[in-house]
Design a protein that fits this description.
The structure is a single chain. By secondary structure, the protein is of the alpha/beta class. The N and C termini lie far apart (about 75 Å). About 40% of the residues are buried. Strand 6, helix 7 and strand 7 form a beta-alpha-beta unit.
Length: about 260
């Protein structure tokens, strides 16, 4: 074979190999380390598109196995949830949120709808601080004594206010002037779109204004891993008590997180 013929044959073999590689790419075949499961450091996780500072939707969704009425979280965790009745002087509420944020804590605010009507900017203030919002009825009436339709109206009106201000009705509902949902209230909460009634296992009794030291003691004497603590906005003693509460929890190896984080 002449040198010229040999060069032609080598060129044809090279082109054929290249065509085979291009055909594999076009068919969707991928090398084992091309960004799929088990790939190297260049691969992006499935949640990588979530903006920084905004958790993926699934991160705040409670497990489907949770009961309708929730009093506390798992005892094996190193977390607690501080939950606040959302009403009262917005300046006091802002001070409390600031204290929580300085300590790296997150809280859950069960907002009263009429309070959000009066102070709509508080909804964004709460969420922008990394906290979460729930529904504590529109007018904070004694909901357990209401007829079904009246109870539904209280829950639904607050839900719609939350949705108008934040785009969501929130995950959690808590009955007003009651620790637990009656059967009637539970049915109306479900009707309004809530899968859970958020109760609590620790009552700070801060609404009785016993003073900061007593509020701190009430919480720390009862709180344990997984606790859901009931507290209130609008109380100066609660703001003053919060640093001591958070420090006491920290000394036990417990951190304050949102209810959704506690139960996720």
């Amino acid at each position: 074979m002449s040198p010229l013929d040999r060069r032609h044959l080598l060129r044809a073999a090279t082109l054929g190999a290249a065509a085979s590689v291009l055909s594999a790419c076009g068919s969707g075949a991928r090398p084992a380390n091309a960004g799929g499961a088990g790939s190297g450091t260049d691969a992006l996780p499935s949640h990588a598109a979530t903006p920084v500072g905004r958790p993926a939707a699934s991160a705040t969704s409670p497990a489907a196995a949770l009961p309708f009425e929730i009093h506390s979280g798992p005892a094996g965790t190193d977390r607690v949830a501080l939950t606040f009745h959302g009403q009262g002087d917005p300046a006091i509420a802002a001070s409390l949120l600031g204290e929580a944020e300085r300590a790296g804590a997150k809280v859950t605010v069960m907002a009263v709808g009429s309070w959000l009507d009066s102070y709509p900017a508080m909804a964004r203030r709460i969420l922008d601080g990394g906290h979460e919002l729930g529904n504590h009825t529109q007018n904070h009436v004694a909901i357990s004594g209401l007829a079904a339709d009246a109870a539904y109206a209280e829950i639904e009106r607050c839900a719609q206010r939350l949705k108008q201000l934040t785009g969501s009705i929130g995950t959690w509902f808590r009955p007003s002037q009651a620790q637990d949902c009656t059967a009637v209230v539970a049915a109306q909460a479900r009707r309004a779109g809530y899968a859970h009634c958020l109760s609590y296992d620790v009552d700070s009794l801060d609404y009785t204004d016993p003073g900061a030291a007593a509020v701190t003691r009430n919480v720390l004497d009862q709180a344990r891993a997984g606790s859901v603590v009931s507290m209130h906005f609008g109380r100066g003693g609660t703001v003053a008590a919060l640093p001591g509460i958070l420090d006491g929890l920290r000394q036990r190896g417990l951190s304050a997180v949102t209810t959704s984080e506690l139960l996720s």
